[in-house]
Each structure stands twice: as C-alpha cells, then as structure tokens.
Amino acid sequence: MNTVLIVEDSLTEQVILAKYLQQAGFQVLTASSATEAMVTVSRHQLDVIILDVVLPDRSGFEICRELKAQAHTSSIPIIICSTKGGKMDKFWGLTQGADAYLSKPVDQEEFIDAVKHLLKA
Hints:
Blueprint: E1 3-7, H1 11-23, E2 27-31, H2 34-43, E3 48-51, H3 60-69, E4 78-82, H4 87-95, E5 100-103, H5 108-120
Parallel strand pairs: 1-2, 1-3, 3-4, 4-5
C-alpha cells in the first residue's frame, strides 16, 4: 500500500484530502506544519507528499525546495495543493521542484489521477 503525507494546516482540507486518498486505497499520514512534516518525512517511507503553500511556520515552497535538495528525499514526488492558483504561483511551485500543482478546491478525480500518475512515473 502506498503512503501519502498530507501537509496542510486546515483541518477541513486535511480531512477532505485524506478521505479522497483513503477511498482510493492509500495509507495517509498528516502534518499541520513544516516542522511536523519534516519529522514525519524522517520517520516514514513516503511515496508521495501533498504540500500546501501557506503553513504556519514555513512556506510549502521552502519545504519543497529543501526536500528536493536532499539526496534521501529528492525522488519523492511532491504535489503542491494550494489556494494560490495563479499562473505565477504554479510556475514558482514547479520551479521549486514540485512534480504537480493543483489549485484548491481540488477535484477529487483530478487529485487522485495526479497521485496515481506520479506513482507510475
């Protein structure tokens, strides 16, 4: 079973995304901050990371850049999932190393398709 980490400070969004993933057969871990996310990344074997941009302690862009720069986490696919859905936001997210960028609110089918696509890549 593939394990997905959701890094999202909104409990409502966290629950919605987790439900989508669980219904699709994924194991889900959650983190509400960058600090919590980094601890989870160090303790678990992850297959995909879903990352919000606006977090209480650091931006998702910073976390993405850091994870992609480290040898032991650089190959984990990252999907940025944010209310910041402008062209420049998407461009910036992808240049920071994100493998995909989805705008909130996410479409369930598009979200699951993106996760599955990255697992096959």
